Amino acid sequence: MALCITSTPIGVTQNIYIRNNVKEKVEANAKGNKGAYSEELFAQEAVSYIGKKHDKPFFVFLSFSTPHAELAVPKKYFEQYRGRFEETPYIGMADGKADTVYEPFYPEQVAQPNATTAAMITAMDDYVGQVLTALKSAGLEENTLVIFTSDNGPHEEGGADPAYFEAAKPYRGTKRDLLDGGIHVPMIASWPKVIKAGRIDSTPIAFWDMLPTFAQLSGVGLDTMPGVLTNGVSVLPLLKAQGVKLPKRVMYWEFATKTRANTGTSPYQAARKGDWKAVRYGPKAPMELYNIVKDAGESTNLAAAIPELTHYFEKLFEEQLKIGR
Questions:
Q1: Mean pLDDT to the nearest integer, 37-41
Q2: Mean pLDDT of 220-231
Q3: Which residue in 35, 181, 203, 325 is deepest, having the highest Cβ count within 10 Å?
């Protein structure tokens, strides 16, 4: 059994949601009203599902969008942070102009964006707590794997100021970046019956490893559904035991965009092999090479100093550009 709860791509007070492939109206948000907060609705749905009688193991995918643009949060969370931070008000489209491509998507003014951001994180923390409490109340806490993570680094649009909170520290870059500030995110795994509390593991893993992991956990082969292809690996052995080594591999990222001027055309590319990471912001852009273990902030470009390794990654990038195009 499975429940998939995903956030809307834009906004946290939407008036239409999809439940089991059927559109549903959120009457509290009809006609421009903001009576319901989507993140709270998602948490309530997850808690309700967990509380039902389950004869078999179940899977819940709960995708909060907060903290995210738009910056919006229920008053009870905002009041905890009102006036506590230095603020640069976000004017959105109040002056009728769009300074970036994002203002039309997030047009409303935010007087205290830093306080709102902090409140959104507190709200999410509360909602995650409600889910964990539901598992405990159902007697499922000890033998349930809970994974908490993020899809990318902190964002800047909609009035958010990741620099103020040092949100990506110690990494450089933000969302839509292939420097580690854009793609290196925390991951917390809780499974009291299996995972020893307090363990820290620096093994690089990625979201493409989640499908093989959940498949192995469920005893389902990756060939069960025709057409399912993945180059990920199951990290279940790593979760179960400290010191387990995953197969050596090269990890590759690609982001198609044209929003970063002066570096050539899309796509951005990055790859990691062992301690080394290469980044290129467009096929015509210069190569960047970093020892990602010794230089987590990617401050020292060693592309010219180690030409053989740089050429290896450059060749890899060119080969990837030919795939599926």
A1: 91
A2: 88
A3: 181
